[in-house]
Description:
Layout: H1 3-17, E1 22-23, E2 29-32, H2 39-48, E3 64-67, H3 78-94, E4 98-101, H4 105-111, H5 120-124, H6 131-145, H7 151-157, H8 162-168, H9 174-180, E5 185-188, E6 191-194, H10 207-230, H11 240-260, H12 265-278, H13 296-299, H14 302-305, H15 308-316, E7 320-323, E8 333-335, E9 340-342, E10 359-364, E11 367-372, E12 375-378
Parallel strand pairs: 1-5, 2-3, 3-4, 6-7, 7-9
Antiparallel strand pairs: 2-10, 5-6, 8-9, 10-11, 11-12
Helix pairs in contact: 1-3, 10-12, 11-12
Amino acid sequence: MRPxxxxxxxxxxxxxxxxxxxxxxxARIVAVGDVHGAAxxxxxxxxxxxxxxxxxxxTGGKAVLVQxxxxxxxxxxxxxxxxxLMALEPQxxxxxxxxxxxxxxxxxxxxxxxxxxxxxxxxxxxxxxRSETRRxxxxxxxxxxxxxxxxxxxxxxxxPGYIEYRDAIGPNGRYGKWLRAKPVLVEIGGxxxxxxxxxxxxxxxxxxGIVRRAKxxxxxxxxxxxxxxxxxxxxxxxxxxxxxxxxxxxxxRLVAAKKERDLTEEEMAAAKRLLTVAEVGTSxxxxxxxxxxxxxxxxxxxxxxxxxxxxxxxxxxVKRFVTGHTPQPGRITTRxxxxxxxxxxxxxxxxxxxxxRPSSLEIAGENVTAVxxxxxxxxxxxxxxx
Length: 386
């Protein structure tokens, strides 16, 4: 391979691996909110924004695309959207642009084993010729742990592709590795992009601290689950509920043992791992006031937000927050004098979001514009920091 090509590939790999949490303002940023598996609509939005062509290749030049989470669940095209984003990342980087995906609460849910909102079609997109054999073997393994399992009910809860899906989004899976590398927020040119919001009562961290906490919590969860699998307490495809039940049962056993004797160092280490699972509800990944779930930016009244919002802007030295998570009725919503842009407009549509409307938010210098299929609507340009 020629040295010039090697250097270019090395630079490209570095750009992808070290995408900064804080970056200088590019000439143009396009942000897209909750997609929920609407692959065709997502591609249409990107084409309208001039970011891709009909062959779904990057044409955005030095523009930045930010997707603020919730690619997963509900719709049928989750895998196609991930494949598109993963393909666009190096294409954009080689053109001087950037594609930045941010984790949403539905990504966190799935990585923890909560698949209640995952569509059968999404599972099926991971199935192959050996899926039925894997399902049968998985049921046999589950039956060894729980003799009372009903096979028909178990198979219904683990449809074709389920086993492969869980493996693909696991810590060593193609999509799982990619997702775990994504932050819960990113600041680009004075705008913070994230899924939910920041509740000052929940976190006083820096932006970097919020990201580190979430990554650390997920890494600790993965380590605890891996340990439980190694100890035959759970199976690789165990659900969030099953993982929690197994952890609680083992903790109960250890508590009973402690009443009779001192626990060994190994048992104390086991209890620490099990507590990571048992107390996951307090983590920023699933807590209702955490960065993936907090809805205050959408639900605060003007009076309720009048003090905390300017304080947040000043604390982080930014102009605005752009968030998804809370569907808006048919349009992107601007709040608190341009301090917040709510960009979840129910892109999936259909029975989930009957009034859904495909949209993106464009930031070009001081100009902020909502972009819809039928036109462009200028928004409030900047927020006032008090």
